Amino acid sequence: MTYCINPHCPKPVDSVNANNLICRNCGSEILLQGRYRVLKQLGQGGFGNTFEIDKCGKTKVLTGLRQKLSPNKTQARFISSK
Asked: What global pTM score does this model have?
């Protein structure tokens, strides 16, 4: 399964996105930095989200911090993968 990390995506889990590069529901990139495919969200908190990802056939964990840009906008910034 492929997961769209856009917080405003109306349907972040959509089986049709499994082979897409762009989310068919919101137009966001599915393949992050050309190599990370988000499989599912593992958790979330006040500062960010944790995702299970696939990187070239290997399963990894990716943590994204939310960075406030303005009162109505948030940007995901990935800080680690293990």
From this structure: 0.69
